[in-house]
Write a structure and sequence with these properties.
Largest sheet: none
Distance between the termini: 34 Å
Number of domains: 1
Radius of gyration: 17 Å
Shape: elongated
Helix content: over 70%
Mean pLDDT: 91
Order of helices and strands: HHHH
Strand content: under 5%
């Protein structure tokens, strides 16, 4: 798990982790009656946006490196694409957590 955190980029993975903590804090506030579902929703959208931004910046840097190198192998290209998706997947998990909680809270 730590390897995925490092591979996904410490900056964006840390920002996504902070947003995930925010989601859980807002869920706890909502359960206690002091928070709104809107805060959970907004933090969920933020975590998804940060994950996508991390992937886009990672892809931009990877394509710059490929352009500078010229010819690259297919394995290297696919490996870079795989690594660039780590932050997006992490952000999407946070988004799903917030959406699932909102659905459950509205149902109850």
């Amino acid at each position: 798990m730590i390897d995925l955190f490092k591979a996904g980029g410490p900056l964006f993975m840390t920002l996504i982790s902070i947003c995930l903590v925010g989601i859980f804090v807002f869920i706890l506030l909502h359960v206690s009656g002091k928070g709104s579902l809107n805060l959970v929703k907004e933090c969920g959208l933020l975590v998804l946006a940060v994950g996508i931004l991390g992937q886009l910046l990672g892809l931009f840097r990877a394509f710059e490196a490929i352009q500078a190198m010229g010819q690259v192998s297919t394995a290297m290209l696919v490996g870079g694409l795989k690594v660039s998706m780590i932050s997006t997947l992490y952000g999407f998990i946070g988004f799903l957590i917030s959406r699932l909680y909102i659905r459950i809270a509205r149902f109850i």
